[in-house]
Amino acid sequence: MERSRWARFCGWLLRKMGWTSVGGPIAEPKGIILGVPHTSFKDFIVSYLFYTQFDKVAHVMIKKEFFFWPMGPLLRKLGAVPVDRSNATSMIKSLIDQMNEKDYFVLAIAPEGTRKAVRKWKTGYHLIAKAGNCPVYMGYFDWKTKRISAGEKVELTDDARADTDRIQALYEEMHLVGKDPEGYVTH
Question: pLDDT (tens digit, 9 = 90+) per residue, 29-82?
C-alpha cells in the first residue's frame, strides 16, 4: 500500500529536521509506546512526524483543558486524547475502555508523567497494558544523536513497580539526551 501524501511529507520533514528513524511502527494493532526522554513539547512534534510517516496514529494524552475551540478538533485529528489528570483512576479506566473498543489503538506515554525531571516513574502504562492485553515498547527520541524509534518490546510481569524500575535501568544504559537535558533523569 502506498503511503499518503501527508505521511510522505511528515517523513520528509522529519529527515529535513535532521532526524533518523530507527525501525518503523509497532507490529501489533494495539500497544503502548513509552516516549523517553520527555523534556519538551517538541518531543510531541518529532514523535508525531515519526509515527505519521508510516500512515499510522500514535495517540497521546493531553490534559482536557487544552481541548477548547479551535484546538480541540485539531488535537483530536493529531491523535490526542483528552484526559482529566485530577483523577488518575478515571483517566486510566477511560484509556483502557478506548483501547478495548477499537481495533487499532496505539498509545504513546511518557512514563515520567511530566516534562520535569523525576526519579520515580509512574506505572499507569503498566496497568493499561495489562488490562488491554497489549505489548509495551521502549520508544525513544534522542536529541543528541537525533535518532527516534518505537523501540524494542519489553516483557511485563505482574509487578508494575519492579518492571518500571527495570525499564528505567534499561533506558539509563541507552544514555539518551532530552531536548532539555536537565529535565531527564533515570535514577
Answer: 999 999 999 888 899 899 999 999 999 999 998 888 989 999 999 999 888 888
DSSP 8-state class, residue 27: S
Please indicate whether residue 1 or residue 161 has the higher confidence score (pLDDT). Answer: 161
Grid cell 508510516 — which residue? 54
Asked whether the beta carbons of 30 and 166 are under 8 A apart, the reply is no
Distance linking the first and last C-alpha atoms of the chain: 43
Helix (H) or strand (E) holding 14, with range, is helix 5-16
Cα 153 from Cα 34, distance rounded (Å)? 10
User: Residue 21 and residue 155: Cα distance in Å, rounded?
Assistant: 23
The whole-angstrom separation of Cα 182 and Cα 39 is 8
Buried b (16+ CB within 10 A) or exposed e, 100-124: eeeeebbbbbbbbbebebbeebbbb
Question: Is residue 15 packed enough to be buried (19+ CB in 10 Å), middle (13-18) or exposed (0-12)?
Answer: middle
| CB contact at 8 A, 34 and 153 | no
Q: pTM for this one?
A: 0.91
Helical H runs in 35-123? 42-52, 71-77, 88-101
Place of cell 487499532: 104
State pLDDT tens for residues 109-126.
988 766 666 678 889 899
